[in-house]
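Hi support team,

I've been running sequence recovery on a batch of backbones for a student project. Most finish fine, but this one hangs at about 90% for roughly twenty minutes before it completes. I'm not sure whether the input is malformed or the queue is just slow. I've pasted the structure tokens below so you can try to reproduce it. Let me know if you need the job ID as well.

Thanks,
M.K.
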């Protein structure tokens, strides 16, 4: 299978050390034995910190996005270092480059591409572009909940959802930016039109990414 894995920067850089990068590298190398892997890495706290500085300077949101994109590419480079020679040595800046780099049979790792596109969106567009079979979205929560699990003890995880149902949940008044992470609207639109199997799961344990290939875990977005 051709698989796109999106990994939130907050997961890789929860602690400022190499441990999570190395743990993911081991899992990804194991998956790469039987599958073709593309990875998109987010910015996490470093991106938010730098964006805050730039915003305080009075720069536009597009400039803030540009700074955030640069940070995602640094994070991608760090994961690339952890993967050693099984990863392609360059960081693609667009989807055509990502596809070209994959012809070397190396794992391709990238960060952001352009303003206003989140890690989720980049991962979904990349999956469509390279005709991937599956997207695995490694985030900081177990999956999609009917309400914020950080605030409500009775929040229930949704194991399966259609792209249309998910869009309604994301667009509802109950769901606001910064409550809990799952996926953004652009990514959902791409998933819907391309009908790519997408799983949202807790990436704090890298092994969960491999589990998603074998049995149900997290939330499945179906079409």
């Amino acid at each position: 299978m051709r698989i796109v894995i999106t990994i939130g920067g907050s997961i890789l850089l929860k602690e400022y050390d190499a441990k999570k990068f190395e743990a993911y590298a081991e899992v990804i190398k194991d998956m790469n034995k039987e599958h073709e892997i593309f990875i998109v890495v987010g910015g996490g706290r470093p991106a938010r910190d730098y964006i805050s500085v730039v915003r305080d300077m009075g720069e536009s949101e597009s400039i803030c996005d540009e700074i955030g994109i640069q940070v995602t590419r640094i994070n991608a480079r760090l994961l690339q270092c952890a993967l050693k020679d099984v990863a392609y040595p360059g960081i693609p800046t667009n989807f055509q480059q990502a596809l070209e780099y994959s012809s070397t049979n190396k794992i391709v790792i990238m960060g952001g591409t352009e303003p206003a596109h989140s890690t989720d969106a980049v991962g979904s567009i990349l999956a469509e572009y390279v005709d991937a079979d599956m997207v695995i979205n490694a985030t900081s929560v177990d999956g999609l909940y009917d309400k914020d699990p950080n605030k409500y003890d009775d929040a229930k995880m949704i194991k399966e959802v259609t792209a249309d149902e998910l869009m309604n949940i994301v667009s509802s008044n109950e769901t606001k930016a910064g409550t809990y992470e799952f996926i953004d609207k652009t990514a959902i639109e791409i998933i819907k039109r391309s009908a790519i199997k997408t799983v949202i799961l807790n990436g704090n344990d890298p092994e969960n990414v491999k589990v998603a290939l074998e049995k149900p875990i997290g939330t499945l977005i179906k079409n």
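--
Follow-up from support: It reproduced on our side and the slowdown came from queue contention, not your input. The first strand starts at residue 2 and ends at 7. No action needed from you.
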